[in-house]
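Appendix B. Raw example, untouched.
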Amino acid sequence: MAVSSGSQQERVGVMLVGLGALASTLVAGIEAIVRGLARPIGSLTQLYRCNGDANNALLLDVLPMAKLQNLEFAAWDVYPDNAFQSAVKAAVLHKDTLELLRGRLEELRPFKAVVDGQNQRRLKGQHVKTGTRLEQAQELEREILAFKEARGLDRMVLVLCNSTEITLEMGEEGQSIKKFEQGLKADCKTISASMIYSYVAIKLGIPVVNCTPSQCLEVPALARFAEENGVPVAGKDLKTGQTLLKTILAPGIKARYLGLTGWYSTNILGNRDGEVLDDPEASKTKVNSKLSVLESILEPERHPELYRGFYHKVKIDYYPPRGDNKEAWDNVDIFGWMDYPMQIKVNFLCRDSILAAPLVLDLVLLLDLAGRTGWKGIQDWLGFFFKSPLLSRPAKPIHDLFQQHGELEEALLRLRKPKEPVPVQRVAAAVASH
């Protein structure tokens, strides 16, 4: 589906795994922006103004990123609903807005999804592929190549925005691509749907972004495969609501040398993601992602008098009436001068897909650019967007939002389009040194 007519040059396919609330909001939003019906609020690639630029130039004017009107969409989903039907059911966007975009949205009909009932036990949809894991991977490959040819695409990016999968312990099949491919042939149960999508994309040279907390690109076999195949990948678990606020508040607490005794967080949400997370095993995957940020930011090993032994608890509750309008409550117990206790209370009534959609757009455009620039493997500099940022090397991840933003800005500076053309090899070398 083309979001709008425009230049036929540099056509980029956005392959969406999952056509639920997030994906339908993304597609509808891009179409509305292209038509001049909406603004790209929340999108760094569309609104960022370059530091130190005398003309206060927008990033999109100085980096050769794909244009929104040249994006084409395909999707897979466990339900056969087109993007319009999916958006209406998700109830993220107003119905009158969707009616204006109806024609375009109805054009986007999903392929049957790859799903394993063992990994995603709460999904009820029957619009799914059959056969072994290898047969499903082969069918995915045919669909992607046919879509590319039919739409005359120059490049593609695969976006994992499907429901959270439970984490299964992998054996040898996760250690090398040879063993992984043998696992596909053997229909190995520890190879999840997300891994199959990622494997096929990397095999075809397509960048991959994992927007979910599911185990996928960090599996050694797939991480090495991306590096060897020259494919940039990034993940995992978009940083949108409660964790976004944590990564803003915690650096402030640390900067003021205030102590922390406990941080209690609970979430209620009622969309499909909430329903899937009602499975304790799937919820465990998500909670582990949410729990990872505070230790890294506060560094209790460096400041034991302030942060050693603080209690951190996260809960997620499925509450159908709330739909996509997630609510997050936080109680933060801190202490200050002479150890006197204080509290911070936060109640964030957010719209999950409204916060996530611009991040997906940014990641698509930046990964596409990274691929054209010659970058490969896990893209550490994109950690700004994720709760559990993947790293290309053994290291402690950075979760402080402001430090992450600094790393992102530094990478963007290296990508800036100079007055004179610079060979791709020189740009890639500059980033590699970073």
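End of appendix B.
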